[in-house]
Amino acid sequence: MAEQDMGMDAARDWLVWDWEVGAVFRARAGEPTATQWQILNLLKESGPLPLMAVAGRLAVTGATVARAVAAAAAHGWLVKDRDPHDRRLVWLRTTPSGEAACQATAARVAVRLSEVAAMRPELRRGTSGPPHRGPAAGPGVAGLR
């Protein structure tokens, strides 16, 4: 029973973190969404990647990445390039404005994490972020820990 309660506590903690930090991404026209930010951050850290590799690393569908990429490209944050040897592959790379948007969003998220940790000390549990979600969580929060 205690293990089940701990699981419920962890789930609740994750939902609170997700909601509180998600506030950074709500109602901000002209700034990256959470998915766009994860993509920009991944590309900034790894360099150009094929669209489907981005989907795999973020553990989302290709369609999810394609929608986020289309919107991010419209803002000028990233560029889509066809592979010259395999026209089926679409490579993604950030632009200087995309890297700036990524850094600005990372700063806002870091501030929000600090605010949430100060308001809700029970969520800290000795970490600087939400409960670990596996490899998909890595690229989006790697620069904040």
N-to-C span: 32 Å
The assigned structural class equals mainly alpha
Low-confidence stretches: 128-145
Strand order of the largest sheet: 1-3-2
Number of strands: 3
CATH H level of one domain: which superfamily?
Winged helix-like DNA-binding domain superfamily/Winged helix DNA-binding domain
Helix and strand succession?
HHEHHEEHH
Key words describing this protein structure:
single chain, 145 residues, Arc Repressor Mutant, subunit A, disordered C terminus
How are the SSEs ordered, and which strands pair?
Elements: H1 2-22, H2 34-46, E1 49-50, H3 51-58, H4 62-75, E2 78-82, E3 90-94, H5 96-119, H6 138-141
Antiparallel strand pairs: 1-3, 2-3
Written overview of the protein:
By secondary structure, the chain is mostly helical. It has a domain at 30-123: Winged helix-like DNA-binding domain superfamily/Winged helix DNA-binding domain (Arc Repressor Mutant, subunit A), CATH 1.10.10.10. The chain contains 6 helices and 3 strands; from the N terminus they run H-H-E-H-H-E-E-H-H. It has helices at 2-22, 34-46, 51-58, 62-75, 96-119, 138-141, and strands at 49-50, 78-82, 90-94. The protein has a 3-stranded antiparallel β-sheet. Strand 2 and strand 3 (90-94) form a beta hairpin. The longest helix is centred in the last third of the chain and has 24 residues, at 96-119. Mean pLDDT is 78; it is low at 128-145.
